[in-house]
Amino acid sequence: MRGALPIVASPRRFFDPRPATPSLLGLxxxxxxxxxxxxxxxxxxxxxxxxxxxxxxxxxARLRALRDRGMRVVAWLxxxxxxxxxxxxxxxxxxxxxxxxxxxxAGLRVESSFLGRxxxxxxxxxxxxxxxxxxxAGDRFTRSEMSDADRQQLSRILDVTWERxxxxxxxxxxxxxxxxxxxxxxxxxxxxxxxxxxLFDAVLHEDELHAKLSPRGRPRLxxxxxxxxxxxxxxxxxxxxxxxxxxxxxxxxxxxxxxAWASGASGATADAVVSALRAAARDRSVVGVVLxxxxxxxxxxxxxxxxxxxxxxxxKKPVVASMGDVAASGGYYVAVAAExxxxxxxxxxxSIGVVGGKIAIGGLLEKLxxxxxxxxxxxxxxxxxxxRAWTDDDRAAFRRQLERTYDEFVGRVxxxxxxSPEEVRSxxxxxxxxxxxxxxxxxxxxxxxxxxxxxxxxxxVGRTVDVVAWAGPSSPPPPLxxxxxxxxxxRIALFAALDASIEG
Length: 504
Known about the structure:
Blueprint: H1 24-37, E1 42-45, H2 53-68, E2 73-77, E3 81-82, H3 83-89, E4 94-98, E5 103-104, H4 116-121, E6 125-130, H5 139-142, H6 148-173, H7 177-185, H8 191-196, E7 202-204, H9 206-213, H10 225-228, E8 242-249, E9 252-253, H11 258-262, E10 268-269, H12 270-282, E11 286-295, E12 297-299, H13 300-314, E13 319-328, H14 330-335, E14 340-343, E15 348-350, E16 355-360, H15 362-367, H16 392-417, H17 421-426, E17 432-434, H18 435-440, E18 446-447, H19 450-461, E19 466-469, H20 482-489, H21 492-496, E20 501-503
Parallel strand pairs: 1-2, 2-4, 3-5, 4-7, 8-11, 8-19, 9-10, 11-13, 13-14, 13-15, 14-18
Antiparallel strand pairs: 6-16, 12-20, 15-17
C-alpha cells in the first residue's frame, strides 16, 4: 500500500479491463476473502502513505484481526517510513525494514499558519464572523496566533490519537507504552535501533526477505488486487440484493462551486450526491445505503440538500453513516440524517457551527494605486463587496444571518440525535471532537470503520447482499480565469460567497 486511499473506488463497467482502483472498501473486502482462500500468509508492502489516522487505524485493525485468527501477516517497509508506516507495520505478526531505508518515526504534530499580521501589512482586512469560540476555520485570516479554544481542542485530538497510536504499537509489538514513547522521543533512530527496541524483527535486503518468507525457495506471491478485481464469469439472470456505499468525500459544495475544485479537489457536489441517493432510493435491488463520509464541511445550502435527500431515502430504506478521517461541520450535518453513525476513535467530527465573511481588499488596492468607485442602491448593497470594509451595522447584519444558519444546524442535529437544542448547543459552538469523545457525548452511536457499518446494515436487511460503490453522474468543471484561480487557491472566494460556510 502507498499514497492516498479513497474510501471507495469509482464504479467501473463490467467489461472494463483496467485494474480496480485501490480503496479502503476494496481493501477491506479483499482481506475478508483471504480466509476463504487459505493462503500461507499475507505480505504487506508498506510504502509512504498519505492517509488520515482513522483510515490507518481501520487498516491496522483489519491486519491485526487476520493475525489474531492465526494467519501469518508480514509487513515489509522497502523505503522506511515515519510514524504512520510504523503504526501499520505493528499490526503484523512479523515486521521487516529494508537495509539502508531511513526511519523518521518521531510522533504527531499539528501546524497552523496565521495571516493576520501579513494581511495588515498589505492593507487587507479579513472580516470573518463565526458561531462559537471553537469555530476556527477563519482564524488563519484574522489572528496572528492560535486561540486558547483552538489550542484546547487540537491538544485533545492529539492526546487521544497519540494514546491510540502508542497503545496499538505497544500491543502489536508486545512492548509497554513507556518503551514505545521512549523510542519516539529519541528520534530520529536508525533501523538497527528500531530492531533493538523490538519494533521490527530484522533489517533485510529483498532477497533475504524472500528467504524469510519461504526458506525452501522463492515464495509464490499473488497480488491482493487480483481478489479486489475479481468478477463472476457469468452474469446472473436475477438482480442481487445490494448495499449501496455512497461516498461524500472532500468539501461539500453546490454544483460548479468555485473554492473546492479550483484548488485541485472536486469535492462532494450536492447535485452528484443527491443524484446518487435518489438513484439508490429508486433501485429495487438496493436494500440499504451506507454514507461513507470523509469531509471537513463546506456549503450550508449544499449540506442541507444532501441532508434532505438522506431523510427521504430513510423513508424507504435503512441508512447508516460511516465517518472516515474527518466528518466535521457540513460532514457532520449530513451524517445526522442517518439511523446509526459509526466513527473511529480518532475520527475528527462535530464542529457544529458556522463561519463566513469576506476579505476586504480596498486597502491593498489603494497601496497599489488602484482607486475603485462604487454606486449602490440599498443600505447594505456593499455587504459582500471585497472593496469596502464592514460598518458596525454591516457586521451585525451578517452576524444575524450566520445565527439563522446556526439555529438550523442545531435543529437538524437535535432532530437526528434525539436531543434538545439546548443539549446540542452545549457541545456545539464550533467545537471539534475526536471520535472517542463524540461517542461519549452522543454525537455518534458506535465505534467502528466502514466495514462495521456495512456489517450492521447486513444485519438490518437480514439477507445475503453484495456491497457496491454507488455514485451519481459527474462532469468535469469548466475552466477558471487565471485571476479567479489565484483567489480560489487562497480560499478567499470561500468567504466572499453569499452562502455561509460550515467548514471545520
